[in-house]
């Protein structure tokens, strides 16, 4: 169909520019000298503007209308392709330019000031800027909600996790809240009885890198189609044929970089495993942020922190650092190190048991901020209450390690936080289903993990965005999101 | 003036896209895994097409016409800015799309086949493709010549060395031919009497890199605005605020990478030294390929292979490789190593005394190919004759080390070769003028070379393309190109 061809050609052309943006973005974080930043930022902004213009070209509307009229002639994949193109087009087109600009200005101002305000524990200064950001996010949410005929917060969720609603998250997180605080306490009490020997550095960076690359290969990362580098904030970037993952090395603690590398390898394999015949099309992209995180957490949590994988890591780490006789490198001890649970203030440092607590409290707050049920001024109090309730920690007056610790809200990315925990729930559910079909522990112990990756490839990676997250889960596991699997998994591993 | 503002805004916007192309091009040569090549090539081609479209937008013609009418109100820099924008616009616009496409196809075909044909010494196969390339280059030259009202080959020269003509090169190279072959012979005879101890490897890559970075700093390269990396074919890329130079390391010979790094540092300082207030405009770019090469050769030949600089290198190399007592690292010996002259087949391996011979023979051939005075079939014979005449070497039947050694002609880049030797002549002339004002040897010996760089910055770097090469030379040295300085320099250093 002519108009469909036009649409797909248009989005494929756009993907070439997005390719260049991805590589230059990676370069900015890993390679660029400081002095290059100003000109680079200008160049990237020019490219972003051009991509936005291309994404919102007026003729697209006509093409979509034409394709919709004849949609009964389309195959299922074609229908999905149209739907995904339309989703990106509508998301890009619906906001008036004035709002986009105001959002960008307020976000940049808030984020810039936050870097200092966080250090100074200056809540009042931060709150002033955040109010502007929240006001614009509410405006954005309303406009998007009018277009999608849904609730305002759901319209923001849809940017990161299409199809997800606050109603569904309330239900899922509600179940979590029932058992998680008690479980955390029980795990902490249990682990207090089990002594852990912390591996002592130094672990030279070159050896850590070699170990990381070794494990990446074992996890099927293709260095023919990707790289590992260093950046301050680890990420997975690039394009599916050239996936760039990064880490940072702590010479006193090799596990942080290693687990980070394994996490990003999960993201990377999803990207490397996307179907080539849909390359350059929205339908050929990863399904959602939550599904993306399910893959990184599957690799990091379900696989790499399991007992049989700890045995593999143990052998390799002993060799890499020449610690054959170090008691900290005995397999049982190392597994305990990899599964230590410890309630703390900082989300990014949290283990998998306490992590959902950090997310649930942020979700409750941002949902009510967007709906208008609460205001910025009440964030610290609510934060403190939830931290006490979930983790037994007070953040009263401690803004920098409380509600000012994350960058997400500073530029108005409301709706993003829940995807971290949705990813953890998806991962547990996928593993549960996989175990029905595969002897997962035996496969890990064998060192050849291909059957595991084949399963993920078939059920997740190769399907890209050809169907909804609900369908993806149903086809892979027999049911849509069921948070009971996460409970079973956590209590099984830790209690 | 409104139209001038529009023009400059247009070219500055374009420079942002060229920035991204430069970084992604660097990435392709230094960082990209092999598997990324296909998608990257597509993305880069899309960007190149977009840049071409932007460069040839129809409204530019009206804007230029308008500006020309009011040009008496423009400052000298504004006039130069208009002239340089116009030059780029005309160069991009004059060729019909069909010819651009045919050129690109024939060039890609010829270059691709050449990679194997060169290995196979397959002249007949190569000649067949090259004929197509030459036919299209002739067509291109005629179209460009009609636009510029000049001779066809001069129109190609103008792409690389604006203002230069075959008539002028004939004159300059004619003078060179008078004395160079005899001088080469005399230098070879003289050096045969002076034993040289070749430094023996291994020279570990990490130590070579540290030495290179040390020398780069001494040469004023700013790592705040640039990087050093590795690529198969060394180059200087990136953008003025983020200059990316590359090298390759031979663990048996540290001088090749070191001298290569110094050469690229000359290119880099020119880029880093361009005027910031003209950034993003054609008038703010380097003057020409020849002037660019004059800076790299000034650094590599005039500075780094001089006796006082050899003393600096000697100290640093001894330390870097821990060779305090190695007789190969005695300063006199090292200087001999750095100034060894040896006629050979391969241009890129040539020393500065024999290098012009390689260029002159290529120039004679390409000039006559474009004018139609000779045909592709006669290249090998003419090559052999010239090699025997200039360097006493026969290339009869040895195509791969003769007329098939370079990539330049495969994609039709005729007019480029002369800029290498023009650069060497400019460099010698600049040094001669500098010596009238500065105690160059004393400055080098002091280790603080700033006065030399300040001189280059004032006379070359800061002037960018605000005036012609002729004027640049006249203002810096009191005369336009005078090849006598190169003769004096070569005979002074080597005889
Ligand atoms: Zn992640
Ligand atoms: Zn050069």
TrEMBL record, chains A, B:
Name the chemical reaction catalysed here: Release of a C-terminal amino acid with broad specificity, except for -Pro
- Could you tell me which Pfam families the record lists for this protein? Peptidase_M32
The entry marks the following residues as binding Zn(2+), namely 263, 267, 293
Q: Which cofactor does it need?
A: Zn(2+)
InterPro entries xrefs = Peptidase_M32_Taq
Details of cofactor binding: Binds 1 zinc ion per subunit.
Q: Name one GO molecular function term.
A: zinc ion binding
- Name the Gene Ontology biological process terms: proteolysis
Q: Which UniProt keywords apply?
A: Carboxypeptidase, Hydrolase, Metal-binding, Metalloprotease, Protease, Zinc
Give the E.C. number(s): 3.4.17.19
Q: What does the protein in this record do?
A: Broad specificity carboxypetidase that releases amino acids sequentially from the C-terminus, including neutral, aromatic, polar and basic residues.
Q: Indicate what this protein is called per its UniProt record.
A: Metal-dependent carboxypeptidase
The species this protein belongs to is Salinivibrio kushneri
């Amino acid at each position: 169909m002519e108009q469909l061809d036009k649409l797909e050609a248009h989005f494929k052309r756009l993907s070439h520019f997005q390719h260049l943006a991805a590589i230059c973005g990676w370069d900015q974080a890993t390679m660029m000298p400081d002095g290059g930043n100003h000109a680079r930022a200008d160049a990237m902004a020019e490219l972003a503007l051009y991509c936005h213009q291309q994404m919102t070209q007026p003729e697209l509307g006509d093409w979509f209308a034409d394709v919709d009229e004849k949609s009964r002639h389309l195959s299922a994949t074609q229908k999905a392709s149209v739907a995904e193109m339309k989703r990106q087009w509508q998301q890009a087109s619906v906001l008036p330019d004035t709002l986009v600009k105001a959002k960008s200005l307020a976000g940049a101002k808030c984020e810039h000031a936050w870097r200092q305000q966080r250090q100074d524990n200056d809540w009042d200064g931060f709150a002033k800027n955040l109010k502007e950001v929240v006001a614009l996010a509410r405006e954005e949410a309303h406009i998007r909600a009018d277009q999608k005929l849904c609730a305002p917060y759901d319209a923001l969720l849809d940017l990161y996790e299409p199809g997800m609603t606050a109603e569904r998250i309330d239900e899922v997180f509600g179940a979590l809240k029932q058992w998680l605080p008690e479980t955390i306490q029980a795990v902490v009490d249990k682990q207090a009885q089990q002594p852990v020997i912390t591996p002592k550095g130094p672990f030279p960076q070159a050896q850590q890198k070699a170990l990381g690359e070794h494990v990446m290969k074992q996890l099927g990362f293709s260095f023919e189609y990707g790289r590992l580098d260093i950046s301050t904030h680890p990420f997975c970037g690039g394009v599916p044929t050239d996936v760039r993952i990064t880490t940072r090395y702590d010479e006193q603690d090799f596990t942080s970089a290693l687990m980070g590398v394994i996490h990003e390898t999960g993201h990377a394999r999803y990207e490397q495993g996307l179907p080539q015949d849909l390359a350059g099309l929205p339908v050929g992209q990863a399904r959602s942020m939550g599904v993306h995180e399910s893959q990184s957490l599957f690799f990091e949590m379900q696989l790499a922190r399991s007992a049989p994988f700890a045995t593999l890591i143990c052998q390799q780490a002993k060799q890499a650092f020449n610690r054959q006789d170090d008691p900290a490198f005995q397999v049982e001890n190392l597994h305990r190190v990899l599964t230590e649970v410890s309630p703390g203030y900082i989300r990014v440092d949290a283990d998998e048991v306490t992590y959902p607590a950090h997310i649930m409290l942020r979700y409750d707050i941002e949902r009510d901020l967007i709906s208008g049920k609460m205001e910025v001024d009440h964030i610290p109090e609510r934060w403190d209450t939830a931290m006490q309730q979930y983790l037994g920690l007070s953040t009263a007056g401690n803004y920098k390690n409380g509600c000012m610790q994350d960058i997400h809200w500073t530029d108005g990315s409301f709706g993003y936080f829940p995807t971290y925990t949705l990813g953890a729930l998806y991962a547990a559910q996928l593993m549960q289903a996989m175990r029905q079909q595969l002897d997962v522990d035996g496969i890990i112990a064998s060192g050849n993990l291909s059957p595991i990756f084949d399963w993920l490839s078939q059920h997740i990676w190769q399907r890209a965005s050809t169907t909804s997250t609900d369908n993806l889960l149903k086809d892979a596991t027999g049911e849509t999101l069921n948070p009971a699997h996460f409970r079973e998994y956590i209590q099984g591993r830790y209690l």
